[in-house]
Amino acid sequence: MARKQGSHADITGPKVQQAALRLIADHGFAAVSMRQIAAEVGVQAGALYNYTPDKQSLLFDLMQGHMDDLLGALEAAAFQGDALTRLEAFTRFHIRFHLPRADQVFVSYMELRNLSAANFAEIEKMRHRYEDALEDILRVGQAEGVFAVADTRVATMAIIGMLTGLSHWYRDGGRLDMIEIEAIYWDLVRKSVAKPA
Predict the structure, then answer these.
(1) Which of 127, 169, 187, 192 is the most buried (most CB within 10 A)?
(2) E-assigned strands of 120-171?
(3) Which has the minimum average pLDDT: 11-15, 23-27, 118-122, 142-146?
(4) pTM assigned to the model
(5) Which ranges carry the HTH tetR-type domain (predicted)?
């Protein structure tokens, strides 16, 4: 039986992706089988191949979907103003986009090593587009004389690493709310690139 009676591709397909995301985030890509994903969705293992050619394609689709959403949101944000204003906007954007997507963030960063070479290259291109947006802000800030960093690429990677790390430990209902966390992280980012007085 290829599909459960009454199942539909537009319903089951997203369920397959959601189940795969949750299982991979919890157990790691190597430990998750197609049979486990099928059981989570409630279909026979063979039915998964109606929605994805294989587990590698499923992982790539999860990462590509995350990056598509991120780049689309970044384009829509269209940061304006001087470099300092744009850097603050980028910092807050990154936090607000990533915090509600802890599983996607974890899989997108921790499972890169499990992509095939071709799939890795595609995701890397997308990641570079995002990183380039921040590096452009840092370069403008250097030209405006407000930022002082030894290397804009290294600073870019350090800032993104710091901001993304927030997704690994922040939980709703903790001592600080998201607005307070944003303010603290913005202060850290600002100070890390500020030109000495």
Answers:
(1) 127
(2) none
(3) 11-15
(4) 0.88
(5) 10-70
